[in-house]
Design goal:
Elements (H helix, E strand, L loop, with lengths): L1 H37 L3 E6 L4 E4 L1 H6 L19 H17 L3 E8 L5 E12 L5 E10 L1 H50 L9 H29 L8 E3 L1 H11 L8 E7 L7 E3 L1 H17 L4 E9 L4 E8 L6 H5 L9 H5 L1 H4 L2 H11 L3 E7 L3 E9 L1 E2 L18 E5 L3 H13 L3 E5 L2 H10 L4 E5 L7 H11 L5 E5 L4 H8 L5 E4 L4 H19 L1
Parallel strand pairs: 7-9, 14-15, 14-16, 16-17, 17-18
Antiparallel strand pairs: 1-2, 1-5, 3-4, 4-5, 6-8, 8-13, 9-10, 10-12, 11-12
Helix pairs in contact: 4-5, 5-11, 6-7, 7-11, 13-14
Length: 530
């Protein structure tokens, strides 16, 4: 009996050990199943016949199954299109036949059931005898990563093209500047020569130098405007404006229009008010670009400038010409500041940055630009921009212009050539002029002599023109000081005006600029005396 009891105890002990081992194994299996179910990506295993034996939660969710076990016994044809199912089956059979795992990218469907790209891995599924009984598959949706790679590649290509375009542009700009400055220097050297064998007189060479300088100035202005726009130095501000007068001013200031047998016609809507609240400062620049382009490329025929307003408070100005037109290739890159094509680079001096600047300015003021053109048949450019109505009571009546008496003027300019030009131009207008080269010299000169007006360069060699202005205004707050500067963005102008400057005349200075200033100054003096 005792031996039988010991034997029973031994059996019970072994059974307990076996049960414990079985429980631990079941726990391990449960844990393994949970790991597979919750694993990222899509995991499945199939029989050699292509029937699913199981899958994880991710794949079940993708296939819109209620439980993982629903997939058992089904094939790819139960879930995918025939073409996709056949492709998947072909890959699976290849792995089963060769016994070699495969890693590849394949097309599938995502959670939104839209086409998706997967990074997939297929491995042979074997039993305890190492016999292949099916396959195991793991897939990860890499559609987002592939899209990012594509976008990065496109961005890299665009950056390379842009870098090349900017390099080409700098080469063109360097060539234009070197050529222009070289011609000016050569013309001036010839003008000062006294050799009898000279074929033409000094005046002819000075005319050449002047024409060359005038030709290159718009190019430099375009570069400056583009940089200011890119840097956010130009902003929008609406003021009352007569749109017809703005258009006429653009045409009047375009000297090329006077030398062509081209009809310039105006088509102004009768509904167009005398005054609109618009960004007239930037509108003038945009119209100057568009109208001057039309004049430049129209040798015969007509240019029609049409202006009208819409019920939704938009002003539309359309410029239609009978000029050379624009090719389809050029239209595709018309607003590209740095043209990629050799065709456009070859004509860059004519196109410049102008249309790119016009579009950026219009975007700045909430407007838009559209171009329709056909080579050899002309071009139509339309711009639209928002406006506001102007209260007629707030618009002052026009008064007759008054001539201004000769003034005693102080010019503050550290560049000798610019100083000489300013003094000469002001003297020709009948004014008495003194000149100094530094800010402190200006303060000293003002303390010694009474002046009616001061023209102040802002960038000086000792103190800035603004600092000199503040020191002068400490003695006499009423003395009008006009800034002469190359920084002529609207924001820069507003900043100068807020610090005591009367107005701003942008460089390079000209007789026309001085004449315009004194006409406006005469109006100011008249209004103050009323």
């Amino acid at each position: 009996m005792k031996k039988q009891g010991e034997k029973a105890n031994l059996i019970n002990t072994k059974l307990a050990q076996l049960q414990q081992a079985l429980d631990e194994k079941n726990k391990y299996i449960d844990m393994l199943e949970k790991v597979i179910e919750q694993a990222p990506g899509n995991i499945f295993w199939k029989s050699k016949e292509g029937k699913y034996l199981g899958c994880n939660n991710s794949l079940a969710k993708l296939l819109k199954l209620k439980t993982n076990t629903e997939i058992i016994g089904k094939t790819d044809f139960d879930f995918y299109s025939d073409d996709l199912a056949e492709t998947l089956q072909k890959t699976n059979q290849e792995v089963i036949a060769t016994g070699v795992e495969k890693i590849f990218e394949e097309l599938g469907v995502g959670t939104d059931w839209q086409p998706a790209i997967y990074l997939s891995r297929r491995m042979p599924l074997t039993n305890e005898d190492n016999t292949i009984i099916g396959i195991i598959g793991v897939s990860f949706d890499i559609s987002e990563r592939k899209q990012q790679e594509k976008e990065l590649q496109l961005a890299l290509e665009r950056a390379e093209l842009a870098a090349k375009a900017k390099t080409d542009f700098m080469a063109i700009m360097s060539h234009e500047l070197r050529n222009a400055i070289g011609n000016i220097v050569s013309a001036l050297q010839l003008a000062t020569a006294t050799r009898k064998e000279a074929r033409v007189g000094p005046h002819d060479y000075l005319t050449i130098a002047e024409k060359t300088a005038k030709d290159i100035l718009p190019f430099l202005e375009n570069v400056s405007n583009y940089i200011e726009l890119e840097s956010g130095l130009i902003y929008s501000k609406k003021t009352p404006a007569n749109i017809v007068e703005t258009i006429r001013a653009v045409v009047k200031n375009n000297t090329a229009a006077k030398n062509k047998a081209v009809s310039l016609l105006f088509d102004i809507s009768t509904d167009l008010p005398d005054q609109l609240l618009v960004d007239n400062y930037n509108l003038y620049k945009v119209l100057d670009i568009i109208i001057s382009n039309a004049i430049r490329f129209t040798q015969m025929g007509s240019i029609i400038i049409k202006a009208e307003i819409t019920d939704d408070h938009y002003l539309t100005v359309t410029v239609t010409d009978t000029g050379t037109g624009i090719s389809a290739a050029q239209l595709n890159n018309l607003f590209n500041a740095f043209p990629i094509s050799q065709e456009q680079n070859a004509r860059y001096r004519k196109f410049g940055l102008r249309l790119s600047i016009a579009k950026k300015m219009l975007q700045l003021i909430g407007g838009d630009i559209r171009v329709h053109s056909e080579e050899a048949k002309g071009t139509q450019v339309s711009i639209t921009l928002p406006y506001e109505a102007v209260d007629e009571m707030s618009v002052p009546e026009a008064k007759a212009e008054l001539a201004i008496s000769p003034l005693t003027i102080l010019v503050v300019e550290d560049d000798p050539v610019s100083s000489e030009i300013e003094v000469t131009l002001l003297t020709k207008l009948g004014h008495r002029v003194d000149a100094v080269a530094t800010g402190m010299a200006a303060v000293k000169q003002f303390n010694q002599k009474q002046y009616d007006l001061i023209f102040m360069d802002i960038t000086l060699s000792d103190i800035s023109g603004l600092d000199a202005t503040k020191l002068i205004h400490k003695k006499d707050k009423a003395i009008p000081i006009v800034a002469i500067t190359s920084h002529s963005s609207e924001e820069a102008i507003d900043d100068l005006l807020s610090q005591g400057i009367l107005t701003v005349i942008p460089k390079p200075i000209s007789q026309a600029a001085f004449e315009e200033f004194f006409a406006n100054y005469a109006k100011l003096l008249r209004d103050e005396s009323d």
